[in-house]
Write a structure and sequence with these properties.
This protein is mainly alpha-helical. The chain has a single domain (2-91), classed as Metal-dependent hydrolases (TIM Barrel, Alpha-Beta Barrel). 42% of the residues lie in helices and 7% in strands. The protein has helices at residues 20-28, 58-68, 73-91; strands at residues 8-10, 34-36. The chain has a two-stranded parallel sheet. The longest helix has 19 residues, at 73-91. The radius of gyration is 13 Å and the shape is globular. The two termini are 22 Å apart.
């Protein structure tokens, strides 16, 4: 998929202990092709699993991706902001 230039987006599920495949994918996706999303109002990240999801919970997803990709929270935040701006500019 990434060889075609498709973006890969990660949501609350990546924070679950059972998300082994998602974590492996997150390690492989190039920096210029990954995004984050909340799937609001569903699929809340840990530690809020079972609660209604909201946009503010994106921090848990970014934090998990920073851990998985061995970077900082700020790096992942900057990369995904840049990617979202590039993607949505293409859509308009």
């Amino acid at each position: 998929m990434v060889s075609n230039g498709y973006y890969i987006s990660f949501a609350g599920r990546i924070t679950y202990k059972t998300a082994k495949k998602s974590i492996e994918v997150a390690k492989l996706v190039p920096n210029d092709l990954f995004l984050v999303e909340t799937d609001s109002p569903y699929i809340s990240p840990e530690p809020l699993r079972g609660e209604t999801n909201q946009t503010a919970n994106i921090k848990y997803i970014i934090n998990k991706l920073a851990e998985v990709r061995q970077g900082s929270y700020r790096e992942v935040e900057e990369i995904t902001n840049k990617n979202a701006k590039r993607l949505f500019r293409k859509i308009n």
